[in-house]
Design a protein that fits this description.
The chain folds into three domains: 2-184, Metalloproteases ("zincins"), catalytic domain (Collagenase (Catalytic Domain)); 212-376, Rossmann fold; 395-508, K homology (KH) domain (GMP Synthetase, Chain A, domain 3, 2-Layer Sandwich). The longest helix has 19 residues, at 14-32. The strands form four sheets. Strands 9-10-8-11-12-13 form a six-stranded mixed sheet, sandwiched between helices. Strands 1, 2, 3, 6 and 7 form a five-stranded mixed sheet that branches. A three-stranded mixed sheet has the order 14-15-16. The two termini are 37 Å apart. It is an alpha/beta fold. α5 crosses α6 (156-169). It has 16 helices and 16 strands. The protein is globular, with a radius of gyration of 25 Å.
């Protein structure tokens, strides 16, 4: 049996993770030894595997939106691999159900995602330990991987009974005083059954005026300055910036906070004519961001007064969605005020923009006015994220983008847009006197640069490895600025021919087009 735990949140310490790992190993072992488990799983003579990711509230909200069309923070999500019902396989195992690594045969049950932030709040509400709550959620999700399903009319009490039996066996029984503690707090005693939660209403004190809070999508053609604006707003480098078009490939969220507002900005890939499956994914991401936003900002280049087809399409999409639409004219410092008048007239004829704001994202001019206008268009409601959060991107994800930024910087022609970056491992070493997971002495990153051709690999490596060394050195320095600690960065170059048009590679690298 193998349980792989990937802790992607600093809210859950290494010590807590170590205890959790030991507990869930016992829990899964107990579950797999139960009489209701299909014996064909054991007959396969393979190691049973489960992957568990620990993420923040923003990340699990994003997963809910992508996979369940649900804009909520939940405590746990399960992604089964095998087709099972109540512990029984629906069909015989096939050769493709197994994987092999150095001759070792493995059978993957599926993936589990748990939000420790939510678990901590629930543990406090229910009056028991965080350890028990985390393991309870793990067991609950394991049962989902084994084909138990309380959400579609099947017996929830059966699942709850199995969960409690497992927890008792591994030494984490429910505190009989938990209900009493809950009631004394003024609430109603409830069992700690996994459930979808509403947005974090406790992020804003009761009795105070609610802030303006919501999502703002930045859309526009490639290289218009959306990523530069995002970085200026967030105050840190979240999106890579390059003079080359189509730099951003996925939707990156930056969170802007002030006392009376919270704006979640989504920086989208530039809208352009798709020339590959990767390009189709990028364009689709832009329009999906607009659909899910509370307000849409169309950013255009102030140096060009006439809108092209991409801007026309973006405006038409926003009009159909009936979202508040703002026109932001970037690079306004590069032209005279008089020359902006034809641009404003041309765009005003296309749509009834709520506001038209000229800015310079590079010089951070006009951004405060833009923020005030955006905030005025958002609903009054509780914050989605804690005040201290600035992005829903993990350091691992941002590191991959910072590496890709240097590829864009140092290489030319078709090389930059034929590459992807995968983080193979992201390991943190704490200082000897560390008091929490922020006290890191070193981060070891192993990453793969994926390219399309052998000739591209030669260019990326360079003569005597000089090019890959330059890319690695520059990327490492930027990652060190982000993480505020020393970084060891090891880069590999791999060839995946025509990967931009092969869905299996696009899925592997995270470029998966979603259905509406």
């Amino acid at each position: 049996m193998s349980i792989n735990i990937y802790n992607q949140t600093r809210s859950y310490t290494k010590e807590e993770e170590k205890t959790f790992s030991a507990d869930v190993a016992k829990a899964l072992s107990t579950l797999l030894s139960s009489s209701f488990i299909d014996k064909r799983i054991y007959a396969a003579s393979a190691e049973v595997c489960v992957d568990i990711r620990l993420v923040g509230s923003a990340a699990i909200r994003k997963l809910n939106a992508e996979h369940r069309s649900l804009d909520k923070v939940t405590d746990v999500l399960s992604f089964p691999v095998l087709d099972m019902v109540d512990g029984q396989l629906s069909s015989d195992l096939m050769p493709y159900d197994f994987s092999y690594d150095e001759g070792k045969k493995s059978l993957m049950l599926g993936d589990v995602v748990i939000c420790p932030e939510r678990a901590k709040k629930q543990a406090e509400e229910y009056g028991h330990s965080l350890e028990r709550e985390m393991v309870f959620l793990a067991v609950h999700s394991f049962l989902h991987l084994l084909g138990f399903d309380h959400e579609h009319g099947r017996d929830e009490d059966k699942m709850f009974s199995i969960q409690e039996e497992v927890l008792v066996k591994i030494g984490l029984p429910r505190d009989p005083d938990a209900a009493k503690i809950k009631t004394e707090k003024g609430g109603v005693a409830v069992s700690s059954k996994s459930k979808a939660e509403e947005p974090d209403e406790d992020l804003h004190p009761v009795g105070e005026m609610l802030p303006h809070c919501g999502y703002c999508a930045l859309i526009g053609r490639p290289n218009v300055g959306k990523s530069t604006l995002l970085n200026a707003i967030s105050g840190m480098k979240l999106a890579i910036v390059s003079h080359k078009p189509q730099t951003t490939r996925t939707n990156i969220s930056a969170i802007y906070n002030r006392e009376d507002a919270q704006v979640i900005f989504v920086d989208t890939p530039g809208i352009h004519r798709p020339e590959s499956k990767l390009s189709e994914f990028m364009v689709d991401s832009s329009f999906r961001a607009a659909k899910g936003a509370d307000v849409v900002v169309l950013m255009v280049d102030g140096r060009f007064s006439k809108p092209a087809n991409v801007e026309k399409k973006a405006v038409e999409t926003a009009k159909k969605l009936k979202k508040p639409l703002l026109l932001v004219v970037n690079k306004a410092d590069a032209v005279s005020k008089e020359s902006l008048l034809p641009l404003i007239a041309n765009y005003s004829a296309m749509a009834d923009f709520e506001e038209i704001i000229p800015i310079s994202a590079l010089k951070e001019d006009g951004i405060e006015e833009l923020m005030n206008v955006i905030i005025s268009k958002l609903p009054s409601q509780p914050r989605y994220f804690p005040m201290e959060e600035v992005t829903d991107q993990s350091e691992r994800e941002i590191s991959a983008e910072l590496i890709r930024e240097q590829i864009l910087h140092f290489t030319n022609e078709e090389i930059p847009h034929g590459t992807a970056v995968e983080i193979d491992s992201f390991e943190e070493e704490l200082k000897d006197d560390a008091v929490d997971s922020y006290d890191r002495s070193l981060i070891k990153i192993h990453a793969s640069i994926i390219c399309e051709k052998d000739s591209h690999k030669s260019i990326l490596l360079g003569k005597n490895g000089q090019m890959i060394k330059r890319i690695g050195t520059a990327a490492r320095q930027n990652i060190e600025k982000m993480t505020d600690c020393k970084v060891f960065l090891d880069l590999y170059v791999k060839v995946r021919k025509d990967w931009k048009n092969k869905q299996v590679f696009l899925n592997e690298f995270g470029y998966t087009k979603k259905d509406d």
